[in-house]
Amino acid sequence: MRNPLMSLFRASPFENTYKHSLKVAQCGPLFVEAIQSYFNGDRDRFEILKDEIRDLEAEADRIKRNIRAHMPASLLMPVDKSVFFAFLREADKVIDCIKNSLYWMSYYNLILPEYCIQYYITLAKEVGDYLGLLPEMVLRAHHYFNSRTETDRQSVKDMIREIRWREKESDDLEKTIFIRLCADESILPKVFFLTVKLVETTGSIADHLENSGDMMRAMIAR
Q1: Cα 105 from chain centre
Q2: 60 Cβ partners below 8 Å, 6+ apart?
Q3: Is 0.85 topped by the overall pTM?
Q4: Which regions of the chain are under pLDDT 70?
Q5: 11-220, superfamily in CATH?
Q6: Is the N or C terminus of the chain more exposed, i.e. has fewer CB atoms within 10 Å?
């Protein structure tokens, strides 16, 4: 059966942009499960999920290259192409940071205090659970580019505001983890360094998602 959503994107580069955003969103629940498996001691499951995310990242890269390779210079778009590609680049960095977070975890068997594990799992859930906002934002934007109505424009802006609000929550949680880590003198220097890099990389997932929202805001600006 033909996907009715795809009919929204006839002869439009937004068709593949939507497909790319779906690959990003699919990583969310896998990322959360991988984190939980790691700290539950199930490294086999962690490695399986890490490989699945790596494969999704490769698929997203293929879609991104296809978009760039099949964008004729003569194609008229409702937005500035440079801003469109900036949006695509930020969305792609989201999935890169997901993959890199899992790679940081695989370098060393992190033994962390329980409070740190729980804070970090909460952070992973926070960023993983709202990656589905990305494809929804793309859909709403395309509705607006077709209709040019203020109602549809406001719908996109509502989604962008939601992404910004969620990023702030993630940022606050990231700072809380750093404060607790710095106050805990029992953590070995190597573990401290790796944990900080892990938390920073995971926090960057939310940062790049917010950046993609900023690029979308520029595309719908009047």
Answers
A1: 18
A2: 20, 23, 24, 92, 95
A3: yes
A4: 1-12, 72-78, 222
A5: Phosphate transport system protein phou homolog 2; domain 2 (1.20.58.220)
A6: N
